Amino acid sequence: MEHQSNEQRIPISMMQGAIFASLQGALLPHLMLRLRNDLLDMVRQHRCSRALLDMSGIESMDRVEFENVVDTAKMLKLMGVKTCLVGMRPGIISGLSAVGADMTALHGVCNLEQALEY
Q: Has residue 6 been placed in a domain?
């Protein structure tokens, strides 16, 4: 998906019939809002049934950032899309669990190969 504005965006592409977004660095609120809108637009345009969010580039995540990802997945679900988190770091998972984040809210896998089978 090409964008002509200078706004910072998270790259999104199509991969084997699924929407693929690679999240890197900090999950700033304005980036997550833009990602959410871009994902919803891609679903509408391409009628996809899966969204794969590559989390391997995320080094830290707090509960609010995780809940933003969960909210995005819930919106995608209302459009018939299953969301899968790919490559979350074990330290992030245990940290989110320690602060009471709902770890059952999203499906996760270790690598892209597993995600494409989802």
A: no
For residue 16, give the nearest of 90, 74, 66, 84 by alpha carbon: 84
| Three-state secondary-structure class, residue 114 | helix
Residue 12 pairs in a beta bridge with: 21
pLDDT at residue 6, rounded to an integer: 54
Q: Calculate the CA dihedral of residues 60, 66, 72, 78 and round it to 10 degrees.
A: 140
Q: Enumerate helices (H) and strands (E) in the chain, giving the number of each.
A: 4, 5
**Count of domains for the chain:** 1
Distances (CA, A) of 35 to 21, 28, 99, 103, 116: 9, 11, 25, 21, 20
Rounded Cα–Cα distance for residues 69 and 77 (Å) = 12
Q: The domain containing residue 39 runs over which residues?
A: 12-117
For residue 102, tell me if it sits in a domain. yes
pLDDT in tens, 39-87: 999 999 999 999 999 999 999 999 999 999 999 999 999 999 999 999 9
